[in-house]
Amino acid sequence: MLAYDFIVRAYLASGIVAVVAGTVGYFLVLRGQTFAGHALSHVGFAGATGGVLIGTSPLAGLIAFTVGAGIIMGLLGERLSGRDVAIGVVLSLSLGFGLLFLSLFTTHATQATALLFGNILGVSPGMVRSLAWLGALTLAALAVISRPLLFASLQPELAEAKGVSLRLVAVLFLSLVALAVAQSVQVVGVLLVFALMVGPPAAAQLLTRRVAAGILLAAALAVADAWLGIVCAWYSDWPTTFWITAWSAAIYLAAVAVMRRRG
Amino acid sequence: MSVIAFDRVTLAIGGEAILAGVSLAIEPGQFVGVLGPNGSGKTTLMRAILGLLTPTAGALTVFGRPPARGSATIGYMPQTRSDLPTLRLTGRDFLASSLHGHRWGLPVPSTADAREIDRVIDLVGVRDLAGRPLNELSGGERQRLLLAQALMGDPRLLLLDEPLISLDPRQQHAVVELIRRLAEELHLTVLFSAHELNQLLTVIDRVLYLGNRQAALGTVDDVATPQVLSRLYGSPIDVVRVAGRIFIMSGDKDVEHENHGPHEHGHDHARL
User: Fold this and answer.
1) ipTM over 0.95
2) Is residue A63 part of a domain?
3) Using the beta-carbon criterion (under 8 Å), do A161 and B89 form an inter-chain contact?
4) Which of A107, A233, A256, B127 is deepest in the core (most CB within 10 A)?
5) Which fold has domain B1-73+157-272?
6) Secondary structure, 3-state, B190-204
7) Inside any domain, residue A29
8) Which domain holds residue A112?
9) Cβ–Cβ pairs < 8 A, chains A and B
10) B47 contacts in A (CB within 8 Å)?
11) Which of B93, B100, B103 sits opposite A211 (nearest CB)?
């Protein structure tokens, strides 16, 4: 199957995205902010379709909207907790606007499906390059903030006392989550970002006791998830995204089972 | 020079004064028990000393200077978070995350950092626990690990916010004795907040009682009196001494036990 360029590109693109999603996702799960990843992807749908509408690329619109929303969420911080209804209204409104922009553009339904559920087999060479740059940028920025991020995630009160700005860390981190979401959407779509950003990292945290091992395993499991998804899609002719969500669930359940056995 | 000096300090949260016009001085080497009803300002007082809350009136100095965030002279042990017992990271990784945790970069401890971690886990005697994940430790073991963390960087003042919470009486006694021993060996000044005076009776030099936006600092005999405590609780209080223990009674109720059921543990924190 590697004789086909589009399959090679699919492996490359999903590999890059999975490493980013798994790594960022490790901190997302550690901080108990997985819902933020979900929320950002919904906002991204309006951005992507809006981008198409005004003539820029969907990826540019996606990044503008998710990063903007990530910064706002970081600034609001604690004030967002317990505002489930307000958040839910904003999320559904974002999807609604995305639908509106799509209809104004009178585009094909395939564009909507690709954004909602991903289209890894249709990735262009240009997109692979964009993802490589974005991925490198995201990982580099995460490396820079990882020390205060880890401290603030594990012990916010103490981190604050030791001079860490919890708000700055939150804003920077959610901006990186936004970038990771924008990249993940290319693979699994806005509705299923959880499959790459939450499933593998959550499994990795169940299986490891060290931070470094946890991050590496999260990235490795996310890559395995994405690549197994492509392989299964190739042989079954079912959608890749379905297989990625299935493997994500399988990896997480297997980790829970291993945990149980260990006692 | 006093380690901590409050001169007519008012601390307010959201416009509401928690402490108003409080003056007190804590001297080097003193072991001070901080007591008072929920919401009386025990955590708030510590946050002000850490420089996380600026007084709305009065002057507050720590080691002769206004408090500054990130001071290396203060070791701080915040009230235990509820998610800590489920954390699967090893104690060593947990401690490493807080050492120079304010600096940018990768959270990889340097050789000097690793030595510092070794030093504090040996001081507290938790070397055998440091390799195990936090979710496999008992409450008392976790508290000892957190105490080791508070000692990193060789502080001269320890602020311990409710370190006895959710420990059984035997573990409470062990933790109190451990802190007393370390305070003596390392010549530390200690502020130790607790729910019940009796938990600390054997170790403290001074008691700092908070209530009704006021504070009373002195020896147990000076402060644990009906006059002082009635003023702080805002209602008539009796102090009953039985077999070396002190019970603080309002009518026929023991106020320390009445006000501090386990279900209310988060209350002090919620005010932040």
Assistant:
1) no
2) yes
3) no
4) A233
5) Rossmann fold (3.40.50)
6) EEEECCCHHHCCCCC
7) yes
8) 5-191
9) 89
10) 161
11) B93
B162 phi-psi bin (left φ>0, alpha ψ -120 to 50, beta other): left
Domain count, chain A: 1
Residue A211 located in a structural domain: no
**Confidence tier at A58 by pLDDT (50, 70, 90):** confident
Q: Considering only residues 202 to 241 of chain B, which have any Cβ-Cβ distance to chain A shorter than 8 Å?
A: none
pLDDT given for residue A119 in this prediction:
87
pLDDT surpasses 90 at A176: yes
Residue A245 is predicted with a pLDDT of 95
pLDDT over threshold 80, residue B198: yes
- Residue ranges per structural domain of chain B: 1-73+157-272, 80-154
Does residue A234 register a pLDDT over 50? yes
pLDDT in tens, B142-156: 999 999 999 999 999
Q: Please, are residues B208 and B192 in contact by the beta-carbon 8 Å criterion? A: no
pLDDT band at A109 (very low <50, low <70, confident <90, very high): low
- Note the pLDDT tens digit of each residue in B72-103: 899 999 998 777 888 999 999 999 999 999 99
- The whole-number pLDDT of residue A222 equals 97
Q: What is the CATH number of the domain that holds A186?
A: 1.10.3470.10
CB pair distance less than 8 Å for B78 and A161:
yes
Residues of chain A by 3-state class (helix, strand, coil), percent to 5: 85, 0, 15
Q: For B89, which residue in chain A has the nearest alpha carbon?
A: A209
Q: What whole-number distance in Å separates Cα of residue B35 and Cα of residue B217?
A: 10
Query: What tens digit of pLDDT does each residue of B28-48 get?
Result: 999 999 999 988 999 999 999
Per-residue DSSP letters for B159-188? EESSTTTT--HHHHHHHHHHHHHHHHHHT-
Cβ pair B233, B42 in contact under 8 A: no
B86 touches chain A (CB under 8 A): no
Residue A232, both tokens: 């299964």
Q: Least CB-CB distance to A164: which of B87, B88, B102?
A: B102
- The overall pTM is greater than 0.80: yes
**Largest Cα–Cα separation, chain B:** 59
- Confirm whether A145 is domain-assigned: yes
Contact with chain A for residue B73, Cβ under 8 A: no
Closest residue in A to B50 (Cα–Cα): A161
Report the residue of A158, A167, A262 to disrupt the B interface, i.e. the one with the largest count of B CBs within 10 Å.
A158
Q: For residues A214 and B80, what is the distance between their CA atoms, to the nearest angstrom? A: 24
B residues 128-167 closer than 8 Å to A (CB): 133, 149
Select from B173, B174, B162, B14 the least CA-distant residue to B81: B162
Which phi and psi angles does B48 have, rounded to 5°? -65, -40
pLDDT band at A81 (very low <50, low <70, confident <90, very high): low
**Given CB atoms, is B89 within the 8 Å cutoff of chain A?**
yes
> Is pLDDT above 90 for B7?
yes
Identify all chain B residues contacting A168, using CB atoms and an 8 Å cutoff.
none
Does B266 contact A at CB distance below 8 Å? no
